[in-house]
Write a structure and sequence with these properties.
It is a single chain. By secondary structure, the protein is mainly alpha-helical. The chain has one domain (about 30-95, about 110-255). It contains twelve helices and no strands. Helix 8 packs antiparallel against helix 11 and helix 8 (about 140-165) packs parallel to helix 12 (about 230-255). It is elongated, with a radius of gyration of 19 Å. The protein starts with a helix and ends with a helix.
């Protein structure tokens, strides 16, 4: 229990360190607040009139997709932070301290949950101002929020791994957007899958982002869920099961070379 207590305390201390970094570097705050807001405004007021979403107002169709995308990219601060710490040699300083080694990773991931909560509040406020309304019951909405936080937690591990393998903070940012950004557009996040070319439709249908977005729509708009909700949960745990060990392995390798 003593070892567990030290692990938790070290994780909390480093999580606090990550959160305190944001007000000291306000440009990081712009990435997970201003950019999603710009996406909402652009798609609703510029492209919304040209995109048909049978059975939905476009803003209702769009918001679950935009929010899932925002949760997926919420871990970019972790990628930047880990890459910067490695580049500056700060990880070596942590190694000299009597602390739980993996707390460097778990602390940053825990901080991402906090920033994701802030991001959710902002996104829902902007969406409601633009006309978005929940159609499902309160328990389903709460379940949808919990699912979004789980998705954000899973993708934080993806960005942690990217940050540990990148040669610089700039490269980690570029890798993350290059790999994940196209996947969000090749999904049902912004347009119905049925509107895509016939050769692209199967790709979008089998894209895990489509499952995640459709699950969010089911829980927020009370659309038929099918297996989407469970599918999104399974995908989240698969991502965690793959990238958490990879991140831990890469971190151990980085601090021992």
């Amino acid at each position: 229990m003593s070892a567990l207590r030290y692990a938790v305390e070290d994780t909390l201390v480093l999580s606090k360190r990550s959160l305190l970094r944001i007000p000291r570097q306000p440009d990081l705050l712009l990435g997970f607040t201003v950019q999603p807001i710009m996406f909402v405004l652009l798609f609703v007021y510029v492209f919304g009139g040209a995109i048909e979403t049978p059975g939905f107002d476009y803003v209702d169709f769009l918001m679950p997709g935009i929010i899932v995308q925002s949760m997926a990219f919420g871990g970019f601060v972790t990628a930047l932070g880990l890459s910067e710490d490695l580049k500056k040699g700060l990880i070596d300083r942590f190694r000299s301290l009597p602390m739980w080694g993996p707390a460097v990773l778990t602390g940053r991931i825990l901080a991402d949950i906090g920033t994701n909560v802030i991001q959710l509040v902002i996104m829902f406020a902007v969406g409601i101002a633009a006309g978005f309304r929940f159609s499902a019951s309160a328990p389903k909405v709460v379940a949808g929020i919990a699912l979004l936080l789980l998705l954000g937690y899973a993708f934080s591990w993806v960005f942690a791994f990217i940050g540990l393998i990148a040669s610089s903070p700039e490269a980690s940012n570029a890798y993350g957007f290059t790999i994940i950004f196209p996947l969000t557009f090749l999904s049902s996040a912004f347009v119905p899958v049925e509107s895509m070319p016939s050769w692209l439709e199967p790709v979008a249908e089998n894209n895990p982002f489509t499952t995640m977005v459709d699950a969010a729509r089911a829980l927020f708009l009370d659309t038929p869920a099918g297996n989407d909700v469970w599918g999104a949960v399974v995908w989240s745990f698969v991502i965690i099961a793959v990238f958490a060990p990879l991140s831990a392995w890469r971190y151990r390798r980085a601090v021992t070379r």
